[in-house]
Amino acid sequence: MLRSRKGRLVVVTGISGSGRSTCLRALEDAGYYCVDNLPASLLPALHDTIAERLAHTPVAVGIDARGGELLGDFEQALASVREAGVQPELVFLDCADDILIRRFAETRRKHPVWQAGTVSESIAHERRTMQAIREQTSLVIDTSEMNVHQLKRHILRLFDPENSAEMRLMVSVLSFGYKHGLPRDADYVFDVRYLGNPYFVSELTQLSGLDAAVGEYVMSRGGLEALDKMTELLDHVLPQHAQEGRALVTIALGCTGGQHRSVALAEAIAAHVRTLHLGRVTVSHRDVKLLEPA
């Protein structure tokens, strides 16, 4: 499992409700080109297309019992891919029947291969359908005792060991102005309107928090203390988000207009978060206006 990702083809299959979609999402976060619910007969053509267009991108394909009779093409499709010089890695996700029944009850979804009868009968029918595929699978993962976060971490450790779940967190730091409305997608919002406002200093009014003079002013008027408190919280929570397999955390800092205080502190927060080495950090300023001096 620790070989190069280049030219890698992972076929994800298994029993419905065992976490196949979660597995594919984890691989997609790891940079795989993912296709779900592909008819098995199309696997060779898909790989040929991807190989031509994205020669250095690993591919993951979801094939399951929703393919119905097309599952009969599975072995032939694998043979064709192998003849092309690619050794596909087969991943079969499984789960105890009682756990599967509970999961379908909680989500209130019907079983994907259900036609008549109970969920238990549908699971039994699917197991019979998938048995031949399970027997030739190189990796079987039992998800009975895993939640979605644990499964994602497990998949990333197997298929993306150089960039494990602890290193895949993306942190987006955003400044904004309250008078323009709160950002809708923020996980953490810090209100910095209580800090000294450079807007009322004539030589700073036309500048933004991206200017050194504004940053120095903000930090000297409560900004440093605010930064210490915010980073203390982030130092505690961000590694735990990464540990849980979270893909993105958005941190928003707001002042009145989104021009001075929030901008300066967003830059400082982003610089600090980068030192945690949890993954990629971006910073953006929704409402900043680079004004010309009067």
Describe the protein in words.
The chain is an alpha/beta fold. The longest helix has 32 residues, at 212-243. The chain has nine helices and nine strands. It folds into two domains: 9-163, P-loop containing nucleotide triphosphate hydrolases (Rossmann fold); 169-285, no CATH class. Helix content is 41%, strand content 16%.
CATH superfamily of the largest domain: P-loop containing nucleotide triphosphate hydrolases
Overall 3D form:
elongated
Mean pLDDT rating: 84
Low-confidence stretches at least 5 residues in length (pLDDT < 50)?
Answer: none
Total tally of structural domains? 2
Tally of alpha and pi helices: 9
Give me the CATH fold name of the largest domain. Rossmann fold
Which sequence of strands runs across the widest sheet?
Answer: 2-3-1-4-5
Could you give the order of the helices and strands?
Answer: EHEHEHEHHEHEEHHEHE
Second-tier CATH architecture of the largest domain: 3-Layer(aba) Sandwich
